[in-house]
Amino acid sequence: MAGTLRALGVHPSKRLGQNFLSDPRVARRIAGLIPDPLEPVLEIGPGLGALSLELAASGRPFVAVELDLRLAEYMEGELRPFPRARLVRGDVLDHRIEELFPGGERLTVVGNLPYSITTPALEWIFGQKERVGRAFLMVQREFAERLTAKPGSKEYGSISVFLALNAGVQNCFRVSPGAFHPRPEVDSTVLEMTPRDYPGTTGEERDAASRMARASMGSRRKTLANSLAKGLDLPGEEARALLADARLDPVRRGETLSVPEFVSLARAWIRRGRPGGGR
User: Fold this and answer.
1) Peptide bond into 199 cis (omega under 30)
2) Lower CB density within 10 Å: C or N end of the chain?
């Protein structure tokens, strides 16, 4: 793999967390998690194709989206023997799923996500969850802990709330640094994410709850009232009135609120005529 990267002139960025999967056993294990061997699959960032070739060889409809033009050109050649597989050049965030798979079917999304794009990739996936049956994503272990964190823990943050509002998450298995090139300093985790709406909520409420989480946890040492005032650009008295409407103590910290409490806060925000907004 190192020789192929050198020949392509690709130098993995440590800053961006670019570590290419090189262990075929891990690739086979991820591919084996998809229950239907012919289910359409979208791969975000195929790299040098360790997982791509496992998936394309099944004969399923397969699309890989690659931003790096040198890697994209290489993968076009690798996928050429598979008539139902294709490579799309560019940033996946600039596309919609209906552009990549126009048929309207639900599909599986897979990817070994660098730390730098994990959050926007999750927002992209779950912003189109009517087309996504499941996602198998490999992320840094520390980020996986953030995604599944509980209120009050140091890992708990707005991305934890966003995911809880939009998906069920299951830890599949851990991947050691030796499965990648270059070798990262931390383990990775493969997560299965199943899109679903948080029970009893509307899309507007979920959007607003995610926005409340982001505003509440932007300054972790501040009280909830002060964090909301800053994060939502509100006068202090309006932030306190919002919390009173949601029946939440203004001196709590945002990271102590549960997902149902963020939903209550979102409903109070909407009742006051405020827009939902994104994560």
Assistant:
1) no
2) N
Query: Tens digits of per-residue pLDDT, 44-65?
Result: 999 999 999 999 999 999 999 9
CA distance linking residue 165 with residue 105, whole number of Å? 23
Task: Count Cα atoms within 13 angstroms, Cβ side, for 266.
Answer: 28
Complete domains list, the chain, with CATH: 2-195 (3.40.50.150), 203-271 (1.10.8.100)
β partners of residue 134: 108
How far lies 222's CA from each of 206, 216, 226, 229, in Å?
24, 9, 6, 10
Mean pLDDT across 118-133? 95
Query: Which two structure tokens, joined as six digits, stand for 87?
Result: 């490579």
Residues 196 and 131: their CA atoms lie apart, in Å, by 12
Residue type, 274: R
Query: pTM score, two decimals?
Result: 0.92
Q: In the predicted model, is pLDDT for residue 1 greater than 80?
A: no
Proportion of the chain in helix, strand, coil states, percent, rounded to 5: 45, 20, 40
- Ranges of beta strands (E only) in the chain are 20-21, 41-44, 62-66, 85-89, 107-112, 132-140, 167-175, 180-181, 188-195
Tell me how far apart the alpha carbons of residues 40 and 61 are, in angstroms, rounded to a whole number: 5
Q: Given this model, what pLDDT does residue 275 score?
A: 60
- Decide: helix, strand or coil at residue 95: coil
The half-sphere exposure of 155 on its side-chain side, counting CA atoms within 13 A, is: 11
**The tokens 């570590």 sit on which residue?**
19
